[in-house]
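To: structure desk
From: M.T.
Subject: fold request, one chain
Message: Could you run this one when you get a chance? Sequence is below, nothing fancy, just the single chain.
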Amino acid sequence: MTDQHAIQNKPSSLFKRLRLPIAVACVVALGAGLYLGLAPSSPQERLASYGEDYIELVMSLDRLQEGEVDIYYGPENLDKREASDGPDLESLLASTQSLRDQLADPELSVIPQRQASLTKKVKSLILVLESIISPEQFSYEEEAKDIFGIDLKGSDETDLAVYREQLEALLPGSGAVAYRLAQFRNQFLVPADKRQAVFARALEECKARSLAHWTLPESEHLLVQWSRDINEPWHSFEGNGQSVLMINPLSMGYLSSVLDVACHESYPGHHAQYVFLEQAMAGEEMFVEDSLTLLRSPESALREGAASYSVDLLFPQDERTQFEREVLAPIAGLGSLDIEKYNHVRVLLDQIALATIPILRDFSDRTIPQATATFRLEREALVPSPNQLIAFSEQYGAYAASYTLARARIGAYVSDQAAENGEDPWVVLKRLIESNDLSVLNYGVTD
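Reply: Done. Structure tokens follow.
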């Protein structure tokens, strides 16, 4: 991306909670004596205590700046303080640096794997805090690489002119192409009273097609709830294969966004991802600090990129056009429109979205003012809501860029692996999700 529906979703759909797994509960029990006035003495007890400290530090950050937790499935007692009870960002940074120093104690090296893993997480949190407190310390490219694991190298070398020329040819007329694009897309707005029905049918198709490639446990279930109390789709994995997806019907505007959101958030997107991750973790030793993923992390970028790419894999362009034209458009009362042209435009916009990266980079690094960035995002990258994207970028840094590149690089990786090894791309994608192979975020990047 910049995948516009997903960028808009993130601020209100970041906090995803799972039930406390048995493996985590056992580890938490190890440190239960800490709350009974017993000081931790053994390396195991100390690391258990430090793991809980890490969770509380991240939760304090999330209360100060909502949306910094991508997923958490640990004990609820570590997430009960009110925002007014927590530290400010500078104090939080000092506490996190102190925890890093405590973890360097040589006595803890008797458990090297946990010491190293927890230290890495704490150091990542320090970088996140530093980037929030003093964003000028990081260039846009440094933040993308150091925090999200994404190397932006080569991201502004793609010649996008050919895609813009094709788009202009598809949308003839007077005025800027951005204006013509808005007029064209507005024909495909789903009437408000049809959106729940259209979404339900899209979700049904996403699940049926996904199950043709992947086997999920019979007990898995996704519950959809409609509410205007949220702004954008909110997915919450509850554990044991169960998820809740809350949707505001006002957010399901364009026909293409209905199918994108349905697949991205459920099958073969986030719901299926977390079911697979839960299965992969079953029976493995797991510590409390492993129950949390920061939004600003390579793991988060990998899952978002995989969810976005999987929609394209599930619905090749011709099949998507047929399904939207013959099934969704009639339900929405849009049966006479040129769906084939609409999807051709959508594919071109996905390619042109790469133009957002150098623009957001230049704005973040203060080499261009906001007015210029807004103008270029609208005219060059054809972003329909440039100010919204800029606000998102200012709040979450290089996350928008990681979205765009993660999707493209994961797609290239899956396609190449499938071709080279004669594998089904769905097998490759599932293995990637379960293995959490972060190197794929820089697939194809050369020095």
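Reply (cont.): The mean pLDDT is 87. Let me know if you need anything else for the meeting.
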